[in-house]
Amino acid sequence: MIKVFKLYGITLIAIGVILTTIFHFIINSAPLSACGISVIILGTTFIALTKNKPKLSDESISTLRNFLISIAIAFAIINVLLAFRNVDDISIYYYIISLAYLTIVIIYLSFNPLPKYALTTVSGVIFVIFLVITAFKLAKIINLFPNSI
Amino acid sequence: MNIRDTLIRKLAIIFPYILFIVSGAGFIYALTMRGKEYAFKSLIYVIPVLLAGIILLILRNRKANRISIQIKDKSINYVHIFLVTILLLIVSVIILFSSPTRPWAYFVVVSLTSGLIFAQIIYERPSWTDYLIIFQIILLSLDLIWGVTLKYPLYFGDTDILIHLSYVQTILQTGRTSSIGLDYLYFPLFHILNAMGVEITDLSIKNGLFIFFGISWQVGILFAYLIFKKLSNSRIFSLSACLLLATSQQIIFYGMYAITRSLAYVMVLCWIYLILGKPKFKYVLLSFITISALILIHHATVLFFLPIIIIIYVFQILFTRDKLGKSGIQLLPILFLTICFFAYIFYIAYSFTNPTANEWFKIIITPDHNIVTSSISNTTWLISIYFSFVLLISLIGIGTAFKNDKFGGTDGNIIGIAFASVIFLLFYISGPLNLIPSVESGLIYRFQLLVAPFIIYMIAYGFNHLISFEQDVRSYVLKRRTQIPLFTLALIVIMIFFSTISISNGDDNSYILRTSNIGSEYFSNSELASFSFVEDNCNSNSNLYGDYQTARNKLFFNDFPNTYEIKGGDISYIADGYLVFRSGELQKTGGLKFSLSGYPEDVNYQYNLENSNTQSNIVDNLSGQTCIYSDNDVQIYIINRISQSK
User: Which of A110, B124, B321, B601 could bond to B281 as cystine, CB 3.0-4.6 Å?
Assistant: First the structure.
């Protein structure tokens, strides 16, 4: 099961990276880029679960299916809803996706604390990216990098 | 033994010496850089640090893993202590009613009451009496808070209360939050709560605000007790920490100061409790609701609280053995709060965030040194005495925590909090903070309230060890074990006495009001009557001039868009408008707060009649103007130089 999870994870990350690159830099579509980011987060979660401390048994990993499915469904709903609301800012997608991910993780860990290490690590990575986005957002607000022509 | 344990053990040994070096260096710096007078003043902090070092050296061979002590004394009955405490509480209320302002006797009685509650806590008694003690702590806290806010006609503290009251009034009048100021348009929960309370109970806006807030504040104190209990796993220790918190200077002040950040602080305490220890589903759901409420109540509180909780988390991870977080703070809720907060302020409250962030950034990078100087000069001895007690006891607590050889187990979190408290002390103690430029305008002083529970936790730890030390000394000197730690109890009573009169807590006392060189923090009945007169009879399109408190009185003058602060005693610059002159306040305090720019948001100064010359004597300058309202305390003048010159 762990090998399957690893394979799923690598595949999802690869697909996610390709999708995000194409949709963000070529097609310039925020909703589709957000889909790519969601896939990367899902893939990272798959891989992180295989590296959990203590190692998860095949049986316990199989119980994580519901958790992973709920994350995927939440991401899909968020992306569709925001796309229907014509949200065109990728950072908004990222913020809401991060919040949804953390909400599900916190609730899930209150029932099953076994994958705490893995899920906290992924949340930490998501948070670091969030901090970078926030820093840029703040810099824009306080006009830290004014356009110098 | 791993590196962490070795580091802590070595730190425990050298900590008293570090204190000696810090106190010596501080004194020498003050002497060489600021002169003899400043060096003499610095003794108020130097001596406690030195003393803490000496006590820690004496205590170095004592085991420090006793987190709670219970005193056994058959000659004293617990019920008697309880009854005397209740009697003293009643006496304090009688003093409140019998005197126009709170006299010294009130503060003495309140401090003695606190001492008796502490005696109850450490006295061996059945565990159900914990509820009785918590009840007494709540009564004491309400006595201190309502004893000011409900005693005076309109308590306004540092005037922010007036603005919040006007927002509540606006919500009640319009039934909407859209008409309140941009500052709280996206953070209206505090005002909605109070407006709802006023609507349901039919109380006046002022009474409603103070009654509901006083009760909400007690919820915060209860949560603080639960936090201490979860961290220490000791009911005695958590009760003593709860008492010390409820009677600490910041908690008393903000308990009276019914504004958004005070209510947000209550939510912060609720949230900390919910995220402590192993996550439970019901707590997780409650923590989500608390986060929403917290963000919707006050913006800056979350921003200031995040670094504090992160510091505690980092120290907990580095130094606590309980890494699985059985009783410690969890990471994921912190991340969740951070993302929620920034998502809200950047995307929903953007019209508030954009100008505020710009303004704040400008203040941070261009510090106003005038403000720093005034802050230092305003630091009086009276304020500092409480903080010297805080320094002494908390440093004893921190030092004892370092040498605690029982890292895991019941008091496993103490090391992390002790490390964090060393940093927090810099923000909690009045003085070091004032050396930072823009401490006032950068709102850095707001850390004081937020770090209070952690400092108090260390103070309680310090007292805990002082009690056991006192008992050992007495048994060694007197050759018998004295049951009641009279010295520690006296120390607590004195500390709480200074806490109740520190900063703005006792400014209504006539002696403190005179010496502290600041204005009253409440309006008298005649002042309120004069404001009503202006509201009802004056043209709201005209200019309105008054001192700082009058100019900031949005509750009465919300319809007066052109409200200015008087610039000085020379009022010849005022061409036309109404001028509200609080002569009673000038007589009572010896001065009024004016602003050089004429705007209450700018730097204010204390105008004194004694220091004024013929040209700047406001009483003489006003004598030629038309007085349209006069009573003993307030005169309202109408100034119209334009028609006079014609």
Answer: A110
CB A17 within 8 A of CB A41: no
Task: Take residue B94 and report the two structure tokens written for it.
Answer: 């009688």
Relative to beta strand B604-608, strand B626-630 is unpaired
3 state DSSP class of A83: helix
Chain B residues with CB inside 8 Å of A143's CB?
A: 358
Q: Rounded to whole angstroms, how far apart are CA atoms A70 and B370?
A: 57
Question: Nearest C-alpha of chain A: how many angstroms from B349?
Answer: 13
B286 → chain A, closest CA residue: A107
Per-residue pLDDT of A26-66, as tens digits, reads 999 999 999 999 999 999 999 999 998 888 887 787 778 88
**B183, B261 in Cβ contact below 8 A?**
no
- Give how far Cα B324 sits from Cα of A56, B279, B331, B423, B484, Å: 17, 11, 11, 24, 39
Residue B309: count of CB within 10 angstroms of its CB: 20
Please report the DSSP string for B177-189 in residue order. STTS-HHHHS--H
- Taken as a whole, chain B contains a residue count of 646
Question: Rounded to an integer, what distance in angstroms lies between the CA atom of residue B36 and that of residue B620?
Answer: 41
Domain range list for chain A: 2-141
Contacts of A120 in chain B (CB under 8 A): 331-332
Q: What is the ipTM of this complex?
A: 0.93
Question: 3-class SS at B251?
Answer: helix
Chain A contact for B77 (CB, 8 A cutoff): no
Q: CA angle at residue B141 from B138 to B146, to 5 degrees?
A: 115
Provide the pLDDT confidence category of residue B436 given band limits of 50, 70 and 90.
low
Burial of B43 (0-12, 13-18, 19+ CB in 10 A): middle
By Cβ distance, the residue of B284, B336, B357 closest to A141 is B357
Residue B279 with chain A: CB contacts under 8 Å: 106, 109-110, 113
